[in-house]
Amino acid sequence: MKTLYLDIFSGISGDMFMGSMLDLGVKMEDLTRELEKLRLHGYHLHISREKRFQIEGARFEVHVGDHHHGDEHSHDHSNEEHQHEHEHHGEHTHSHEHQHGEHSHTHAHEHEHHHEHRHGHSHGEEHSHEHSAEHGRSHADIVKLIKASALSEWVKSKSLAVFQRVAVAEGKIHGMPPADVHFHEVGAIDSIVDIVGACIALEILGKPRVLSSNVVEGHGWLNCAHGRFPVPAPATLEILAARAVPIAQCEEPAELVTPTGAALLAAFVEKFGPMDSFAPSRVGFGIGKRNNKTRPNVLRAILGETSATVTHDWETDTIAVLETNLDDVNPELLGNFLDLAISAGALDVSYAPVQMKKNRPGVLLCILCGPEEADKFCEMILRQTSAFGVRRSISERRKLRREFVTARTPYGEVTVKIGKLDGDIVQIAPEFESCKKLALEKNAPLKAVYDAARKAAT
Questions:
Q1: Which spans in 258-317 are helix H?
Q2: What is the DSSP string of 338-387?
Q3: Which of 204, 213, 207 is nearest to 245 (CA)?
Q4: SS3 232
Q5: What's the confidence (pLDDT) of residue 129?
Q6: Residue-wise over 58-68: b if at least 16 C-beta within 10 A, else e?
Q7: pLDDT tens-digit series, residues 210-257
Q8: Are the C-beta atoms of residues 102 and 184 closer than 8 Å to each other?
Q9: Which of 240, 219, 232, 237 shows the shortest CA–CA distance to 292?
Q10: In what order do the strands lie in the sheet with 269-272?
Q11: Residues contacting 359, CB < 8 A, separation 6+
């Protein structure tokens, strides 16, 4: 199965994603032709080859406005290839402002060689979507723009899904409906091109399955429309939280993941984690705007093949597994601890006999709980048992879809739990407490009530 793996060791932004797609082989002409179907004007695209920490890749930029950056240098660069409509030569530096959602990031960067400008506007046409720089475009405006375009239905639906994630996050932050969220004019054009362009690129690549490494973000503070905020930016955190995407912060003192990058991950990535049974065929590097201190500002995208996987309708979640070995604990204390842990919200508590050092018999104590409650139960183990340490790990679970039905038996009604996989009933489990209560009421053997309930639910 064709698969795109995103290696986010240094974050992700819309322009980094686009750069990696172009470096993987998406042609600029194809991308430009498709973007013209939006009838979005007032920008031009800039693609160049740049390096970060000696890693070379594609740098993708959206320049807003009709101004073209040009030099009047007349130097002869006979060994250099330039693809630039305005004949830029040598190196030049300019600065401009990107706004991801409502977050403004002003930066400067240097361009090396192989520059190419593509234009997304036509001076002879009227623009039917007039917006002032002050008011910008609302999310509702952007939805209308995309729906009215001549883009493919797949690109339309995916683009709208990505923008919806950004709008929902911003709406939650500002306390307003997603449709009312406004993007500053510059940020709107930048975001539209990045997001729609990303969907176009994925379609050109054959709509691959998308996987990703775990998300790495920097640390520190950033200045945005909401004021001075810690990294991750408010919208970035909201977008990733909506998908329960795990985040790890690194030592880089900068924002590495933008709201646009987060929205692309949340909309497209099926699974986060290391590569598994992945056969790479092509590698592309998307170059970011910064010269980072600790790692290259680069997104590595890998196109390859993974084994076809069978999809099931089971439920998934993530839990914490806490374990400790005890060889000197009073069994009565263990019994009391089980009751305490269950009362405190543990998903499960179990004991198992183990052989420990010096041939001592011991007990393996295991607690399953939500990741957010792991520290609470670690403290409980250390305070309530003889443990000096607790092993903690995070595990994924696959669970049958569950239904609770009422089974009518000769003894009365019993609650039964049904487990289904892909529509098939694979487990039938009468609820013990329901059976126990009915057996006491009817003065009947518990086993008989249990068997009758199971039979009635079959």
A1: 259-268
A2: HHHHHHTT-SEEEEEEEE-GGG-EEEEEEEEE-GGGHHHHHHHHHHHSS-
A3: 213
A4: coil
A5: 36
A6: bbbbbbbeeee
A7: 999 999 999 999 887 667 889 999 899 999 998 889 899 999 999 999
A8: yes
A9: 219
A10: 113-119, 43-52, 55-64, 278-287, 298-306, 2-7, 209-212, 269-272
A11: none
